[in-house]
Write a structure and sequence with these properties.
Elements lengths: L11 E4 L2 E7 L8 E8 L14 E7 L1 E6 L2 E6 L3 E4 L6 E4 L5 E8 L2
Antiparallel strand pairs: 1-2, 2-3, 3-9, 4-7, 4-9, 5-6, 5-8
Length: 108
């Protein structure tokens, strides 16, 4: 079992204003999925992209939008998002506070 504070996991700068922490992954003995926590500073966004696996997202704090095939949808604290495989998507912080969310993906 692993119990930790997410802030104990080293953050990587994915893009200016976008931090990622892989808080649970294969090195922890999780062979099937990876839990990541993203922090987007105001005005920042993840790149628009797609891939062969789904995302499961839970918003911890902040406000923003997720852009997908159906256009932009507002997200805020306690929102959940499911992005299907191959759907082009990105997450954008539209607020004046950090947008923080958990993202769970399968390991390939």
């Amino acid at each position: 079992m692993k119990v930790s504070n997410y802030l104990e996991t080293e953050a990587t700068l994915e893009l200016p204003g976008v931090l990622k922490r892989e808080v649970i992954n294969a090195s922890d003995g999780a062979p099937n999925s990876c839990m990541r926590i993203f922090e987007l500073e105001p005005g920042s966004s993840t790149p628009s992209h797609s891939h062969a696996w789904e995302h499961q997202v839970y918003v911890l704090s902040g406000n923003g939008v997720v852009e997908g095939l159906a256009g932009e949808r507002e997200i805020s604290r306690d929102s959940v998002v499911f992005v299907v495989p191959e759907e082009h998507h990105c997450f954008k912080n539209t607020s004046k506070e950090t947008l923080r969310f958990i993202c769970v993906i399968p390991l390939q």
